[in-house]
Amino acid sequence: MTMRIGCVLFDGFETLDMFGPVELFGMHEAAFEMRLVAEAPGPVRSAQGWQAVAEAGFDDLAQYDILLVPGGAGTRREVDNPALLGWLKAQAEAARFITSVCTGSALLARAGLLDGKRATSNKRAFDWVTQTGPRVDWVYHARWVEDGRFWTSSGVSAGMDMTLALIAHLLGRPAAENAADWAEYTWHRDADHDPFATRDRA
Amino acid sequence: MTMRIGCVLFDGFETLDMFGPVELFGMHEAAFEMRLVAEAPGPVRSAQGWQAVAEAGFDDLAQYDILLVPGGAGTRREVDNPALLGWLKAQAEAARFITSVCTGSALLARAGLLDGKRATSNKRAFDWVTQTGPRVDWVYHARWVEDGRFWTSSGVSAGMDMTLALIAHLLGRPAAENAADWAEYTWHRDADHDPFATRDRA
């Protein structure tokens, strides 16, 4: 059965947060059907300046099986956007997995979805992100964190490692190994190994 | 001085080939100005199904300092597209660096730009790619290959390692280290180390 992935875009989303995972999910097109979703359909500008086309708006009634929420400079604004937070909350009620990359976890936190749950984020933005969710059990040393349906990753390229773990979880380890191999990507398989976690803090 | 990067899109381009490098160049926005370019401006569909917006067409007269040419399933068609090959040849006359990721090197090869030069490509498509350039000195074991102005990388995520090496070449090693660190990306710094080169051949 094909799983539908809702890939959430907003102005100032971080390029690789979104399109690293899209590349890897895309290796298994029979299993995953991806759609870019934003508040309104049409071009959405990334933090790097180029534009991706959102195929659907938040008024679309589709229910996604997996949500993919990127970070990026735009999250600083989107944490106060009720349209985005409301859509995330509504989708999360029935979604099988809610995933985020980098500061995307701030959006999940502000939507109240991570309360009482373990989660992580980018190490260079960690202090800001943790303030967006005072009732979240933030994990500093982690490449990514799995807590039930909620999978959150550390910064940018960590999203690819989390995605491969999710592919392994859903389709089996060989499917994830094959995606990594095709992309000639050295998969960091250990969720707890985080070489970037010691830079800014003691 | 800002360097202009022409990021070449065509139907069926590989997502991460393009947007891994875009992410990393984007960490130094004072140094690099990126523009997505295609045969015609407007939405261009990736091999993974979503669309990026090309800001300029090949009839735009801008000269780019750096060309970034991705691979993807679409290269099988584009090797016979005189509009694309002609644009690459014209741009390459004055560009400081001509870079490709994955099967993007087949496009450079068919444009005649790699004749007599060392180059590499994706290991799973190597036999096809080498046929597109019989006068190219193809290097099988390489994460990426530098030959003067022509930098070609192996598959997909190898483009990020090549990009970091180019950033180091242009802006100094700390600038590349900083981009990798911000993206929480473990940079594979050795161009000759290719763990994916031994899978399909003896």
TrEMBL record, chains A, B:
InterPro entries: Class_I_gatase-like, DJ-1/PfpI, INH-QAR. Coiled coil: none annotated. It comes from the Bacteria. Residues 4-168 form the DJ-1/PfpI domain. Pfam families: DJ-1_PfpI. PANTHER family: ARAC-FAMILY TRANSCRIPTIONAL REGULATOR, THIJ_PFPI FAMILY PROTEIN (AFU_ORTHOLOGUE AFUA_5G14240). This is DJ-1/PfpI family protein. It comes from Roseovarius faecimaris.
